[in-house]
Amino acid sequence: MVYDFSKSQKNTKMTIPYQDESKDTATDKDKPNNIQNNKETDVSQTDREIFELPGGCLGGTRLRLSCKGPTERKFYSFSIKNRMLADDRIASVKVGPASDSKVTADKYTFQDQTFTVRLSGGELNSNVPVRCEITTEHEETLDFVCILPIREEGILYENQDGIVVVMGATGVRGNGIRSIAMGNDANLEFSMDDGTVISVDTGLFRDDNGQIVAIDQVASLPDDFSVNGSVFLAPDSYVNGGKSMPKGLSLDGNIVLTDGSVHYRHSMNNGGVLCSPD
């Protein structure tokens, strides 16, 4: 109906209907793009999976990558098949931080509608926006920005049960590891930032030829054994039968002999005689 206001000088009231959003049962997928609700959505990557980007407008979507440590160099893979023509392929990829950041990108590879890039660096406890720009064989240019969280690596500390590694940004904070070395007895020695050294038995030892080997049975020598030169000696209490010799060990006088069936930490088998490697 068309109103001709030139024929009437009376005030005319018109009711313009509007949609009550509380009674709107249609989902965003049922609505045209220009009237969809402006909601923010997080799309997060599970570690090491191929991050599949959603189709459609990304305006309210936060694309969050799995986190990495400041010193880690980590590969990330993306699938953009939902944003490309079915018969199109990736022709080139460019990735870099969208802000002033220490994150760098290299080692690009791509095939069909999937690409991989290695991301390195970053400042601890920052969320770095990373821009990806893709050129396709059909000469389309697609770009998107994802968030790269930079978080702590695993933290090494010692409790009553030994060495524990806590992955992620939570847990007990310990000393940083300055260096790791293998000791004479093939144990691992962790030199910590506070100057302490944490030694971890590996179950390995060096044989007579200096080769590192593993053995099923490993034990520690009694505290009352002594060393004369490099030969282990047992006190008289073992000679007269007051104490029992550990498994695999016997005596020639006070000299400790070994049959090699058990490896005793910080010792070596020298032709059947138990000796110190130091």
Could you give a short description of this structure?
With 278 residues, the protein is an all-beta fold. It contains one helix and 24 strands.
Overall description:
Helices cover 1% and strands 42% of the residues. It has 278 residues and is mostly beta strands. The strands form nine sheets. A five-stranded mixed sheet has the order 1-3-9-8-5, with no helix packed on it. Strands 2-4-7-6 form a four-stranded mixed sheet, with no helix packed on it. It has a three-stranded antiparallel sheet with strand order 12-13-14, with no helix packed on it.
The radius of gyration over CA amounts to: 35 Å
Average pLDDT level = 78
Give the strand order of the largest sheet, numbering strands 1, 2, ... along the chain: 1-3-9-8-5
Query: How many strands, what sense, and barrel or not for the largest sheet?
Result: 5 strands, mixed
Number of strands: 24
Proportion in helices: under 10%
Number of helices: 1
User: Which class of secondary structure composition applies to the elements?
Assistant: mainly beta
End-to-end C-alpha gap: 106 Å
Kindly report the oligomeric state of this protein: single chain
Poorly predicted residue ranges: 5-18, 26-38
User: How does the overall form come out from the CA principal axes?
Assistant: elongated
Strand % is: 35-45%
Order of helices and strands: EEEEEEEEEEEEEEEEEEEHEEEEE
